[in-house]
Amino acid sequence: MTVDMQMLLWTAILCVLQAFPYTLALIAKAGLMGAAGYPQPGEDVLPDWAKRAKRSHLNLVENIAPFAIIVLVTQAVNGANDATALGAMIFFWSRVVMAAGHIHGIPFVRTVAWFVSLAALVMMLREIM
């Protein structure tokens, strides 16, 4: 398995794991039946850190598709190389930093990490275009 594919797998794992903090916070605030029921309680019942955790998760959900497409096209055209591997690693680690910064509410970390992840995607695209 190439580094690109490994980073895609780790990014998918990160995406799954990011759902747990805010889900557990919702269960803690609304109870299991409230969290599992319909309609679900609004975000107003969540503490601020859990609201940020949910937004961080949703942002990764939005960005994992382009990353996956780039990685899979790279594999399909046999374009994986050191630059695409580095781009994939930068993407993954910037998303880890973004999640931590976003959940903890550290100013500017979320924005800088997002731009770094975007630059990593561009870096990978340049190798296969």
Helices and strands in order:
Layout: H1 3-36, H2 48-76, H3 82-104, H4 109-128
Question: Could you walk me through the main structural features you see in this protein, from its secondary elements to its overall organization?
Answer:
- The chain is built from 4 helices and no strands.
- It has 129 residues and is an all-alpha fold.
- It has one domain: Four Helix Bundle (Hemerythrin (Met), subunit A), CATH 1.20.120.
- The longest helix has 34 residues, at 3-36.
- The chain is elongated.
- The mean pLDDT is 92.
Low-confidence stretches: none
Alpha carbon gap, first and last residue: 22 Å
Order of helices and strands: HHHH
Main structural class = mainly alpha
Reported by name, the CATH topology is Four Helix Bundle (Hemerythrin (Met), subunit A)
The residue-averaged pLDDT reads: 92
Biggest β-sheet description: none
Gross morphology: elongated
Helix content: over 70%
Number of domains: 1
CATH architecture: Up-down Bundle
Please give the CATH class.
Mainly Alpha
Number of strands: 0
Number of helices: 4
- CATH superfamily name? Membrane associated eicosanoid/glutathione metabolism-like domain
Rg over CA atoms, rounded to whole Å, is 17 Å
Strand content: under 5%
Key terms for this structure?
129 residues; mainly alpha; Four Helix Bundle (Hemerythrin (Met), subunit A); 4 helices
Structure at a glance:
By secondary structure, this protein is mainly alpha-helical. The chain has four helices and no strands. 82% of the residues lie in helices and 0% in strands.
